[in-house]
Specification:
Blueprint lengths: L2 H9 L5 E4 L5 H9 L11 H5 L8 E5 L2 H5 L7 H4 L11 H19 L15 H16 L12 H13 L6 H10 L3 H4 L6
Parallel strand pairs: 1-2
Helix pairs in contact: 6-9, 7-8, 8-9
Length: 196
């Protein structure tokens, strides 16, 4: 699949490349690293790149896109497995979600629902448009955590609980919505450490 990329590296040794697309697992990242891909999970991680002791190569990174949204928990140990750190942050999903709930609430407080996230020119404000924008903003803020339990027992419960709380915009803040959805999940899922 990446033969063209490696051929470009060979044909243009004075240029640098970032491998992009189709990478789904940490094992695949390792395979690309073994083919000369220098350590970088996301191209904008210059800190990780500068920590390396190996000589620079023309492929400077591996970009993870959709997979990081579809299965974010899979990348919880990337610090040790790819970047060579001595330890990972080691947060449980409960810790991540509690912190994220505070962050999402802060974003809603700072930016409110008066801005349309997808509009180039916002329509006039009406009670209905404010309600729709509020729901849209909540949905955008919940997108990074919607698949945190993907592939595990209870993942459907999690997604439904979040969806239910997003629709009930008048009853809860976004922080409360996340915490209510968390209350539907078993403690064993919330408190499990990332797989090693």
């Amino acid at each position: 699949m990446y033969d063209r990329v490696f051929q470009l590296v060979h044909d243009f040794p004075h240029l640098q490349f970032t491998l992009n697309g189709g990478v789904h697992t940490i094992e695949e990242i390792r395979e690309h690293l073994n083919h000369g891909v220098r350590h970088s999970l996301i191209a904008e991680h210059p800190v990780a790149v500068t920590k390396l002791t190996e000589p620079p190569q023309q492929i400077i990174g591996v970009m993870i896109g959709r997979e990081s949204m579809n299965r974010p928990w899979m990348f919880a140990n990337v610090d040790t497995q790819i970047f060579g750190e001595s330890s990972n942050p080691g947060f449980t999903r409960r810790e991540i979600l509690t912190r994220y709930a505070d962050y999402a609430q802060e974003q809603m407080t700072l930016y409110g629902a008066n801005e349309c996230l997808s509009c180039k020119r916002p329509p006039p404000l009406t009670p209905l448009s404010l309600s729709l924008r509020h729901r849209e903003k909540r949905a955008v803020l919940l997108r990074p955590i919607i698949n945190l339990f993907n592939g595990e027992h209870g993942s459907t419960i999690w997604r439904r609980a979040l969806d239910r709380e997003v629709v009930q915009t008048k009853t809860t803040t976004i922080r409360e919505a996340i915490l209510k959805a968390m209350s539907q999940m078993p403690d064993s899922s919330l408190d499990a450490l990332p797989p090693s």
